[in-house]
Amino acid sequence: MTTAAPPLGGYTIVDLSSGIAGAYCTRLLADAGADVVKIEAPEGDPLRVWSASGAELSGDGALFTFLAGGKQGVVADPDNAADVAMVEALLASADAVVWSRGSRIADLPALAPQAVHDRHPHLVVTSITPFGLDGPWRDQPATEFTLQAWSGGAIGIGRGSQDRAPVHVGGRAGDWVCGAYASALTLAFRARALRDGHGELIDLSMLEAQILCLTYYPVTYFEMLGRPWRTERKPTVPGVAQAADGLVALGCGTAQQWFDLCAMSGHDEWIDEESSLTITEQANLHAEELYEWLRGQNVDDVRDLASAFRIPNSPVANGANVTDMDHYIERGSFVANPHGGFTQPGHPYRLGGVALAPPRPAPRLGEHTDAHRAAVPPVRTAPASTRDPLPLSGLRVLDMTTFWAGPSCTHAMALLGAEVIHLESTRRPDGTRLIAGIPATVPQWWEQSPIFSALNSNKLGVTLDFQTERGLDLLRRLIATCDVVVENFTPRVIDQLGLDFDSVRALREDIIMLRMPGFGLDGPWRDNPAFAYIIEDATGLSWLTGYPDRNPYEPYSIGDPNAGIHALNAVQLALEHRRRTGEGVLVEAAMADAALHIAAEQVIEYTAYGALLERAGNRGPAAAPQNIYQVSGIDEFGRDDCWVALAVGSDAQWRALREALGSPDWAMAADLDVEAGRRARHDDIDAALAAWCRDRTGDEVVATLWPAGVPVGKVLQPHRQTEIEQLAHRGFFEQLGHPVNTSASHSTLPARLANGPASFHRQPAPLLGEHNAEVLRGIGVTDDELASLYDDGVIGDAPATGRRKAAR
């Protein structure tokens, strides 16, 4: 296979966005070969003067230099008619637009997403806003920090500690993930536009993207089981722990891993296979003794021992040490920026035989303006009507993934119209079937997991024991009928089965094989077990989450769905390469590579300015004051534990805040009029705001500050997301029935569409082996053979039995 032109070569995108989300979206597309034309007002994108550490800049900031690499730079003055006409000409000749509020040129009414879509129906217009373009909250102020509060992500799935305020996930991770979603959806509707000439208005909500990536389907869980996933904040055990010579990360995602950790630490007496407690609860019982043991061990010794026991483990990465870790060095995970001289991550995925762009300089302000002034828009015919609004219709995907990262990728594909066949075995069902805490005495307990339901709607369900010769033969026959195969086993498993890419391509020459290992297909950590929290520890995502006087808290949420949405980008680029060349592609979408990208600012700040970004609780570099404050009220669990998040991101918002508070004396000092003064006196401001909030309910605080234009949000329990009227207006949750479970709300994609489907869920998650007969008959299996396969346990419809007397 020879390296061909980049998959998006010749695809033109007008970038009318400001901030991380839009910049990261268009950076991903530019790296795939798209011509991205970044439009700025004369004062430039605010990221040009940004440094998270507050470093003195002699030119464009390093983060801007990274995110704008390979783009063209055009300046357009919104007060100059000729400049506005130039932008209009660029729109007429482009294929897509990425838009967000925040610049004077993007804020022109004529350049609003709906207006652009109306004038240029061929364009895929991707709008990125906090809450969406319509609905009761459409114009409410927000920051990534306050969106975490509204999403439930600030409480997450138990992160933190009950003796302190809830703590947000550091590093503005929500903005980065939103950018990955924007890129993936732009690619999806580009595929439809190629098919029928019809563009789309993608109205992406950053709140909805954060719900999908910072919480674990809490509404579906609550409605199906009548209880929340977590009721209190507790650190993960063992999580990030202090060893004799530094921090080390250990995790237990399964009962076997907990039992092995007990044995590894010399405490076999902790093993209780009959306990009614969850693994998390058992680990918490022995936390102090476990931490005491770890404090007497060296990091390398702990990691060597854990690896021998197959227990997930990693060092704890930050901006200073991550580039020196042997795994990333061997894999070449970091590269030098050609303009700034600092270090940045390479690509978040690897596509065999497909050209992705090397690091390229960012444009100077207005560098390419003159070249675009003479652009002549092409003559375009009216697009055809859309017969099938789903962009991935006609695509057949074999989903050999489990738990969250892989299924979240294939679930998005299923929601977008692909036929997705979710493969399990009766000996090893999808892990999410097993984590709901349903007793095995309950009939069909394995069908009652809300997490499995939330991740697998619209999919077909097949069981195959491919550890048997007959099962492996059927698997190979099934692979030959699919466009895409997705798997997230550790690399050694697929290799041992003889299903490496060359073997799979022998079954179908043009197949796309998406592999989603934790740490990649090579390198020293290749075979290490990898759950989301270990990926977060190993890439820096944990480092910025928590309080400076405590060990980092693992976000324990974002590592999996972030890997899934990056993989969705990667597989679509591979499909475009196949469309152009007819070639199959091996896609390596390692979870760690995706996580290194959304943690990129740490490495960039350290190598550009020598600044190590540190945990700061709920404070952050983008706003001052910024914090979570306790308010009056007893929560649903009977605790005095109600909170609001507040973030002042500009001097104008500070003036609005103090006026909304009644201009108290403490807020009127002249030095507080500027951010530097407020940051210097953050403790004093916190004390005053904490006292003001403590006498009011969360609703009262929001009702006072939001109308004044101050970003604020109630810190919601995640299972209360359906109480947000904005989500109800946009139909983010859809009721979905099920043959075993009660009807429950299921989240959708984080965007509404002008020409897309009104709803996304078409059928519930499959029962175990529900579609065995339908799918296997499609590859030539007879009814007699089906009956034999059931009798021999090769296929089945119940865990660990795999036997039936008759085929269905």
From TrEMBL:
Instruction: Give start-end ranges for the coiled-coil region(s).
Output: none
Q: Name one GO molecular function term.
A: transferase activity
**What are the UniProt keywords, alphabetically?**
Transferase
Q: Which InterPro entries does the record cross-reference, listed alphabetically?
A: CoA-transferase_III_domain (IPR050483), CoA-Trfase_fam_III (IPR003673), CoA-Trfase_III_dom3_sf (IPR044855), CoA-Trfase_III_dom_1_sf (IPR023606)
Domain of life of the source = Bacteria
PANTHER family in UniProt: SUCCINATE--HYDROXYMETHYLGLUTARATE COA-TRANSFERASE (PTHR48207:SF3)
Could you tell me what this protein is called? Answer: CoA transferase
